[in-house]
Amino acid sequence: MSWPASQAVTNPCQQWRAPFMFISADVELKDEGRRLILHAAGQRREFAALWLRERAPDDTTLDTRTGQRLIEAAQLPLTLCAETASCEADSLHVRFSDGHATAYALNDLLLDTDADHAEVEPGLRLWDAGLDALPQATFASALEDDGALLAMLEDLHRYGFVKVSGVPCEADGMQPLIDRIGPLRRTNWGGIADVKSVANAFDLTMTQRGLEPHTDNPYRDPIPGYIWLHCLSNAADGGDSTLTDGFMAAQRLKAEAPEDFACLTRLSPRFRYTDATTDLESEGPLIELDSRGRLARVRYSNRTERIAAHDAALLERYYAARQRFYRLITDEALTVHLKLGPGDMLIMDNYRLLHGRTAYQLEGGVRHLRQGYVDRDSTASRRRVLGAQLAGNARPGASHTAQGVNP
Question: Which domain holds residue 378?
Fold first, then answer.
């Protein structure tokens, strides 16, 4: 398909994307070269010249060892523009008004845009009670085989949870698998902690009562990213686990009551936890969006939420929106039920999944679980690096181990 150029000759390029299939792409400059328009695969992608310049992938802009930027992007002239642009094979070649010339892989550019304005990150699968099969993994395989570990991490990312079987029924049985992914997040409760009914409980989790769908620890900063919940014994009557996809519930809320959805993205309640030695407090909206307007996180903790004394009319809107959201996250049509047995473990995305449990009676036996947290950054890093390694792709900095962090 041919597209007319505005201020420069439009150059077609052919990108080899799959066997026996070419995708034609055209490039044009607009606004005196301050914007570059790329037409590819029937879509129109727009790039600012300044964005392209600071993202130049060559070795005068990026350090080849670390992939970190060498130029000071804030010192680039705000009037910078692209003087020429053309496509050759699978690359886009651009010369800028500061004299710099570079080439970009078309695949990278197309992946770095948000053309479809999706409501969630691409690759996520939202689900409800009709989920046909639970994402599952086996402890031994994930511990011993990188391919099995990657499959587990991909399912965790895609569905927001995964059930792991065959975990040793020991107090710290989950630890070897945690060590394969990232450091254990320590809290005021220690590392891997008990979840069982105790006298004089310091948290309602440590009682026999049922727990409403919730996310863990929204009073922390940062909030723990992934919950690891390992069953040692579950012979008590009741104590079934419930899972709800918070992104599915948020998406339903937006479709059914967009004004309520908007309210829950804008107003930020505070969350607080205190005991004899701890006083934790943070804040954030029940539904949080990223910079692209996509669902990024849900928070829900009836036990610890503390909304400020806002204007009465604003609070009325918030309470109505929260109630509608609560009805969705507790709707049986959105809820998956399961009962963990000894050696079973759930790993749950605490930014997406709401989990709860039914009440239980100890007359039927003991219910003893252990719980730990692993942060999102280390989990996501492990998934991406392992995926690149198994695909045979080189990554910046892969030839050395960093000994420090950026200030």
Answer: 136-391
